[in-house]
Write a structure and sequence with these properties.
Shape: elongated
Low-confidence stretches: none
Bound molecules: guanosine-5'-triphosphate
Mean pLDDT: 87
Order of helices and strands: EHEEHEHEHEH
Helix content: 40-55%
Distance between the termini: 49 Å
Number of strands: 6
Strand content: 15-25%
Largest sheet: 6 strands, mixed
Strand order of the largest sheet: 2-3-1-4-5-6
Radius of gyration: 20 Å
């Protein structure tokens, strides 16, 4: 299975730290401002996967320009929306990004896209300004997954984010396939009945 994942959030919330931690298991501390699409092969439960992860530095346009969002939506099978638990504005931006993604998706007539909301920098809990409950409530209200992680201190929590999202992508693909299958059956049955009706005339 192949899946494309877009990582978004305001500046310095740890988008690159999360991505690099998942890809290399390492936290290197400082990351450049380069827009990158990484490709990563791995296996989960005996299944081979290729993930392409689009990590882009924060841009003001993201929450306002629909063309920025359209480009990513057309490419993405899933989103990781990151905020820092120490930065209220970054959490507010995640709320706005969910709205922009949903509106743009409806406008383009695309299927529902899985989203993981990630509160990063859990190791800095003494500087916390966003409660876990707020993240959890936002996820519940917007039908997203929710995680609190520390890219700096915990590889496993980061792994769970990407594995969880891949699982949701897989599920949403099988729902689309099933719906297409049912549509196909209904179509062929209608064709048979229509033929019978014309035969009997
Ligand atoms: N304490 C702590 N610091 C972190 C964590 N994750 C990232 N950082 C630090 O936060 C800073 C920003 O991390 P980046 O990964 O560059 O953030 P970004 O969201 O990619 O930032 P932009 O590229 O500017 O959009 C760096 O100094 C990281 O070392 C974390 O879990 N805990």
């Amino acid at each position: 299975m192949d899946a494309n994942i877009v990582v978004l959030g305001t500046d310095s919330v740890g988008k690159s730290a999360l991505t690099v931690r998942f890809l290399t298991r390492r936290f290197i501390g400082e990351y450049g401002d380069i827009e990158t699409i990484y490709s990563h092969h791995f296996s989960v439960d005996g299944r081979e996967l290729t993930l392409c992860i689009w990590d882009s530095p924060y841009s003001q346009d993201l929450s306002t320009s629909s063309s920025m969002c359209e480009k990513r939506l057309q490419w993405a099978d899933g989103f990781v929306l990151v905020y820092s638990i120490c930065d209220r504005a970054s959490f507010n931006m995640v709320t706005r990004l969910i709205q922009t993604i949903k509106t743009t998706k409806d406008y383009l007539g695309l299927e529902k896209v899985p989203i993981a909301i990630v509160g990063n920098k859990r190791d800095l809990h003494h500087r916390r300004t966003v409660l876990s409950e707020e993240g959890r409530m936002l996820a519940l209200a917007s039908d997203c997954q929710f995680y609190e992680v520390s890219a700096a201190e915990n590889y496993h929590s980061v792994l769970m984010v990407f594995h969880g999202l891949v699982e949701r992508v897989r599920e949403s693909r099988s729902v689309v396939k099933k719906a297409a299958g049912i549509k196909g059956i209904v179509k062929s049955m209608s064709a048979v009945f229509a033929r019978r009706r014309t035969d009997s005339l």
